[in-house]
Design goal:
Tetracycline Repressor, domain 2; about 80% helix; about 200 residues; Arc Repressor Mutant, subunit A; mainly alpha
């Protein structure tokens, strides 16, 4: 029961932090919205900072288990068709998973207040994804699927436009079909250029 309550607190806190920011999140309101007293909330977490860190810890574990990380790599695609499918799966998860959307919203605002949020924002919006694709592209080059090139520069050139389009979709979700078409066209163009003949 305690774990369930703790998880529900983190679910509610993620929404509140994403919508109101850290400073705008009031624990009394958070507890009341869950039908708890503030003292009941403090039986599970010692402070707002404790809840904040638990939210970030849980989201990092959640994201890595579903998306991957430089330390926990997804399987390397065996063909360019596999690369396309993997990219679109990762994109679908990133754009549609409610927890990931809320975390991205939280990181975009709190990166200017909190050093840990800044680190996660840099990792998830740039460096982590680039490192994953650097390793993927290096292996695909080694396996004769992609032309030899600098895998790190190629990963940066591949992930940066997709990341920008994800943020664009966050701001203007009604344009998602058009944005998905742009991503698909970009990935197909990339593959056409770098696929080894």
């Amino acid at each position: 029961m305690e774990n369930t309550t703790k998880e529900k607190i983190l679910d509610a806190a993620l929404v509140s932090f994403a919508e109101n920011g850290y400073k705008g999140t009031n624990l009394r309101d958070l507890a009341a919205g869950m039908g708890l007293s503030k003292s009941a909330l403090y039986r599970h977490y010692e402070s707002k900072e404790d809840i904040w860190n638990a939210v970030l810890d849980r989201m990092e574990t959640y994201y890595i288990s579903r998306f991957g990380s430089p330390e926990k790599m997804p399987p390397t695609p065996k063909s360019c068709d596999d690369l396309f499918a993997m990219t679109m799966r990762m994109l679908d998860f990133t754009m549609h998973d409610k927890r990931v959307i809320l975390t991205r919203q939280l990181l975009l605002t709190e990166q200017f207040r909190d050093e840990r949020a800044r680190h996660f924002a840099t990792l998830h919006f740039l460096n982590g994804t680039k490192e994953i694709y650097t390793k993927i592209f290096a292996e695909m080059m080694e396996n004769g699927i992609l032309k030899k090139d600098d895998p790190e520069l190629l990963a940066f050139a591949y992930t940066a436009p997709i990341t920008v389009l994800i943020h664009y979709c966050d701001r203007e979700p009604e344009k998602e079909p058009e944005i998905l078409q742009q991503v698909e066209a970009f990935v197909k163009h990339f593959i056409k250029i770098y696929k080894k003949a």
